[in-house]
Each structure stands twice: as C-alpha cells, then as structure tokens.
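Record type: monomer structure entry
Structure origin: computed from sequence
Chain ID: A
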Amino acid sequence: MTHQAVDLTNCDREPIHIPGLIQPHGALLVLQEPDLTIIQVSSNTLESIGHPPQDLLGKPLSALLAPKQIATIRQCLSEDFEHVNPLDISVKRAAKLLRFDGIVHRQNALIVLELEPKQKSQKADFVEFYQHVKGTITKIQKAPTLLEMSEAVVKEVRKVTGFDRVMVYQFDADGSGRVIAEDRVEALTPYLGLHYPPTDIPKQAKQLYTLNWLRLIPDSTYQPIALVPAHNPVDDRPTDLSLSVLRSVSPLHLEYLSNMGVGASMSISLIQDQKLWGLIACHHSTPRYVPYSVRTICEFVGQVMSVELANKEDHEDLDYKMTLKSLQGKLVESLSQSERFLDGLIQLDSNLLDLVSASGAAICAADQIICVGQTPPESELPALRDWIKTQIQHNQFQTRSLAQLYPAAASFKAVASGVLALEISQFHQNYIFWFRPEVLQTVNWGGNPTKPVEVTDDGETRLSPRKSFERWQETVQGCSLPWKPYEIEIVTELRSLIVGVILKQADDLATINLELERSNTELDSFAYIASHDLKEPLRGIHNYSNFLMEDYAAVLDADGVSKLNTVVRLTQRMEDLINSLLHYSRLGRAELSRQPTNLNEVVRQAIDTLRISQPQSSIEFRLPRSLPTISCDRTQISELFTNLLTNAIKYNDKAEKWVEIGFIEADRGDPEDPLLYTFYVRDNGIGIPPHHLERVFQIFKRLHTQDQYGGGTGAGLTIVQKIVERHGGKIWVESAIGEGSTFYFTLAARGQS
C-alpha cells in the first residue's frame, strides 16, 4: 500500500474554515435572503432552542423570531455587523422565553446567525464595561515599553476572565512564536520565554485569527455538532464558517490542547498593519465558558493593544534609531556631493556598516563590486549577486540564514549567514548587500518542535501533536542575529533618498548637457562662419602681396622682398589653419552615414594614396591579419586611418621605417559589432614625451617647430579624435621616446549622429 507523503505543510492544507461542524455551546442557522429562509441548521437546535432541525428547515426566520427581532437583524445586516453584534434574541420554548446573544454576519450570498445562551448573571451594562476597560487601557497606554505593556495586559485579562494562564505570544518573521509575557497560577509550569514552531499555528489558522479578533473553546473535550444538511442548498458545498464564533476546531488542535492539559482556551488576536503580530492566549485546566460580554471586554483590550503596538515598538531602542537616522543623513549627503553612486558610498564605509549593524557590505555598480569590512570571498560575490537578484521583492531581500536558501553560502556562513540586500536600480545593476556573521544561539522550545509522524491502525500516516511541552533546548547554527524591522525600514528609506539624489544629479547633468550641446552648436556655427568669412580678406592680403612682389620687386631692396615673402608664407599658413578649422567644424555638423565597411579596403586605399603622394618615402606597412568588416562612416574612417598613417610616416627618423595596423579582439560578441574590437596603429618613430601625451589631441598643438618634420597645422590628431568620438568610441596613445608610438581607438556600434 502506498502511503501519502506527510510533511509539516499537511497542517497548512487542512480546510479548517469548512468543517461542517460547530461547538455545542450554541446553535447556528444559515439563512437565505430575501425572506431569511432557514436553509441549514446545526443538529442541536432541539436541545438549544427547543425546535428540531426538520421543523426549521425551509421556514422563514419569522416562524422562529418575533417581527421586532427580525427587523433588528435586517438592520444589523445593512450596517457593519461587527459594531452591532451581539443582538438580544429571545426564542419561545413551551412556556419559557429563552434569551440568547445573537451574532449575525454575511458569508458570500448567505446569512449566518449564531445563538449563544445568555448567562443568568450576564447583563449589557455600558457603565460596567467602561469600568472594566478604563483602568486596563490606561495601563496599556502608560506602559513605557512593549514588554511592560504585555505584562500589564496578561494580568488584566486573567483578572477579568479567571483563566489559569494568560500569555502574550509574538510571532517571528519565520512564523514561529515566543511567549514574551505570562501570568499564571503558581502551580503551573512557566512557559515564559519558550519558542513554538510555525506548525503549532498553521497558515490558514493565522488567516482566520486575522479575520476574527477572538476565538473561544469552552471545552476542549466537546463532541462537535454537525450541520443539517451537510452542504447548503445554494451551491451544494460546505458552508464557509470563517467568521463563525461557534466554528468547530481542528481535531489536531484539540489533541494539541489535550496534550498540554488544557480544558478550555481563548485567543485574542493582536494585529498590526493588517497582519497577525501575535496572540493573547488564555488556557484553563478545566472547561470554562466566557460570556459574550466578558469576551467583548477582552476583544476591546486586544484592539487597543494592537493600536499601541506600533507606538511601543517605535519607542524601543530610540537612541539606536536616532543614530541610524543620523547615519542615513550622512550617507545621503555624501552621495549628493559625489559624481558617481559608488564613490559616495565608499567614502563612508564604516557608516555604511553601522547603518544596520553589519560586519560587512558589498556595493555593486554594473560589473564592479566593492567590498567593505568582512564579506564572502570576492570570487563568490558575482554568483551570490545574480542569485539575490532573483529573490528581490519590493526592492529588497533579507534573510538571517542564507545557507538554507542558497546552499553555496555554507562555505562562508561564518561571515555571511545574514544578508540584507537593497536594489537601487535594476537597469544599472546598482545594489547594496549587508552581511552579518553566524551567531550560535540556544533556543528554548516548548517541547521538541519536530512533529512526529504516526501510522494509524489502517496504515495511514498522520502528523501527531507533540505530547511533551517541557523545555527542550536546541543549538541553532548557520543563523545571524535577525534584521530588526526598523533596520529594514531605514534601508528602504535610504533607497528612496538615494534615488532622489540620483534623479537630482541626472536632472542637473541633463541641464548641463543641454547647455553644453547648445554651446557646442554655437561654437561649431561660429567656427564655420568665422572660417568662411576670414578667407576673403586673407585671400586679398595674399593676392596684394604677390602683386607688390611682381610690380615693385625692382624698387624694393632685398629686405623688403624678404618681408613680402614672409607675408605670403604666413597668409598661406593662415589659410591652412582656417581650412583645418573649417574641416573640423564640418565634421561636427555632418550626419554619419553608417554602412558595412571592409577596413582592409579602407587601409589599402589609404596606403596607396600615401605611396603616390610621398614616393620618396621608404616605409614598410604591416598588417598581421585581415581587418574586420564593421558598420561605420566609410569616408570619415578613411580619413582617420590616413591621418594616423601620415603622422606615423612624418614623425619617423629611422633608416628602416615601419607602421603596423591591427586590432585586439574581445572574447565574444557579434563579429560586425565595432565594440568587439580595439584597433591600433603602431610605428617605430620618434615617440612622444610622457608629459605631451594628452596635448597631442589638442587642435593646432604641434610639439615641434613649424619647419620640423614637414610642418603641418597640428589639427590631424584632433580630427582623428573627433571622428572616433562621433562613432561613440575613445582614443588614447602609448609611447616611448625613440622607440615609437601606438594609437589605440574603439568604435561603438551606435555613436552620436
């Protein structure tokens, strides 16, 4: 026989909201509008209200209750029933009038009416209610800490209910719980400080605690009462009893209570931010019914405590929180004064760690990772980063036991058992990771937290609640100290502040770029107009100087003729400079015409042109391997190679001159993508002094006199740089005096047009 696999999630799948059963201390009726027809009842109606189920089914509620009470129920349904319940309901039974607390609510298309008999001493007295809760609320509000508030609440709830034991039970982030306050009769074993595993209160039970402020089990040994019929006739399904106060309890939970020696229990929900923060848990060794009026007091206390939870937690570790705020401000200030995201964070490395009491941090920006303090090995960080990226939700991720989620972390758990990750920008791959070391901890459990699996007589497997709740100690490994809620809150705020700074910087940069673009456009226009307009008077000076030489050479002495020759030479140089400036200006204005270009052909044509224009030059051109075909502006790239080759020939005083044209290839990529290649032009010429390496790209900057190395305007390398930048690349030079120079450049696939 194949047994069903049993694990601790089986409890999470138990459909406790549709048991089809109720507890016997009241009766339940399911009604259908518009006539409030009774379509389903609990099978104990004869004992509870004096009418057997068969006499009620199919009848309107008016057959059971007086018109005034029907009107009250209808009014309750039209309002917020939580603020109207309980209703004062009377049912005639023979000659007697039975009085009930009526609790009514809607459940989808159905109306559920529950009737609990009123106790003889029970009376609805607002003054009595006020007197009960006034002192308790004052103690809750005046308690300076969460712990002191919890201690006050357990005392007050035990006083008003008479339970043997009342506890405040707080849930941890992993779903387990811990008793943080307790008031009990002296003979009972203390549970204060004990932990309880998540499976003690399954997920669906926690959901029901969120829906219902209070849950009462007057007798844990009760025999459940079935509903008649088992399925309601509207949808032929079990009726959802999620909001029912009489809903029967899971058999596993009843067994759990029995193992604890609990005869009656009551739980009051503590809810913060619409999530179950914890419970006020009440236990009694024998059956104990708590009247609705007393439960109302307890429910109100739970609601007031829930409201105060945030206030008390806000005041916990107030000095530490103020320190965190101050550190956050320093980080943001540093960021606002730094040009790069990475730099601003690194400058305040110790503050970055102190922000969340971390021992190490890693700052990721694109493919760069900077480590601060104690971190996992740098070789492990890229893989860890890539995994964490898949786990991030709402811009953050945190765990105190990384190795449980990411097994590779076991090797560095000593420094990084805890991780808190903040995503600044997914697009730019900007992340901050904080690390905490492993801290060995001893946890006191209320019994062995592992639920045993039992095999029943018929061979089925089932989870059995543990039978012992004596203190059971466990040494927990692979865990760091937990990340506190306000530490997570502070880094969440930090992200918003960082994004704000980055957006401000981006806005400032956009403004600067716009102004720079406008200035460059105006400069280009000025250079073009100035160059064009200067040519006419310059040409006049040149021509008139030649006319003087031709017409008055006989009159002028040798010194006069020499001066006129100097004027002609200077005007010629001026024209060359203007033409270079005009050409440089046009490069910045012309649209790029990108097309697939075979660089072998471009270089060969440039070499052939140089050999024709400089037949006297004896130089060896080397191409170690065939150049690639890339997408570029053929005309401009041709000029780029021509200028670099011309310079290589011009600035070479060796007897055997050579120039090498080649490229360095990246490991991967599209063969037609220029980003894949770094091109170079290398020579064995005179070289460039180190302090002049940056000046070579400045326009009209020559490193030699006009008469040395064939002259020139000094615009060639400036034009080369412009062409490279227009193609979205960069250019740089490496050189050694007397040995030669190598000009490297890249060409991006998408440059500015």
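Annotation 1: The chain is about 40% helix and 25% strand.
Annotation 2: Residues 651 and 708 are 9 Å apart (CA to CA).
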